[in-house]
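Key idea: predict the complex, not the pieces.
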Amino acid sequence: MEIDSIHHFPGHMQKAFRSLERLLSLVDLVVEIVDARAPKATRNPFLREAISKKKSLVVFSKTDLADPSVTKLWAAKAKADGNDPVLLDLSKEKALPIVSKAIEPLLKAKREKEARYGMKRQKSRLLVVGIPNVGKSTLINNLAGSRRAKAANRPGVTRSEQWINLPGDLMLLDTPGILPSSYDDARAALRLSLLGSISEQVLPIEDLGRVLFGFIKENYPSALSSRYGLEDVSSLHADFVLDAIASSRGFLLPGGNKDREKAALALLKDFQAGKLGRISLERPDDA
Ligand SMILES: Nc1nc2c(ncn2[C@@H]2O[C@H](COP(=O)(O)OP(=O)(O)OP(=O)(O)O)[C@@H](O)[C@H]2O)c(=O)[nH]1
Ligand SMILES: [Mg+2]
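Result:
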């Protein structure tokens, strides 16, 4: 891996990747996880280049929260780009058989070499990487299952890194590689904050709620009907909707006015938890 050879690499990214460099040097395979609701915004744009010499697998997490028809479009695009992704609902599915199967073709050259030289099957070492909140820890726990407790130190590597043996000659590093979010693009920043994956306030909560409502009104107009009883939102103004939410939840300010900030926060939390149905924030055909 040659971090120094990457051009147009902003300083803070370079610094973050430097600290990841050691983790990356310990493994053969990188499992990059992105959020299916915004697979572009939740992807670090420099990872591909930084790991260009490594085998890697892309996992879409939270597919249970994303719009299935949009996820299909993303998966087709990624496949066409040569990164056939694995789609997972980590809240319900067992990831190990699915990930193991997807990894097998990536190990083909290694297996062939072992066979050629009559060598024993070597273990393949995996590192899960991704920006904050995409589900790295959930994926590691899901893959490791009860094996996690049995993690043992291996001589020769730093103590703090535990390796977990998985079936199929795989070893998983139990520390994920945390990648920095990239939000040079204002829309990506907005999507990351709607997903609750960056703590920086790109907008005040009330405005974030208005943006989310605008998006829902345009793309998922019936999403607010069961939760808030708002049947047809196509003609409604965001503030009217925030007031309606505030009324139904009893969010009132001391003078009796509706607390739109609290209403906006409730709307955001409901969206993030999937209570408004399956919603994707990004489509591959967005400009
Ligand atoms: N519904 C659903 N929730 C998920 C899924 N994967 C992860 N989550 C939830 O998403 C949240 C973030 O998951 P984590 O595993 O903590 O994410 P992380 O990448 O380790 O986050 P950091 O450690 O903060 O970088 C948690 O509340 C998880 O329960 C999924 O596939 N479906
Ligand atoms: Mg984590």
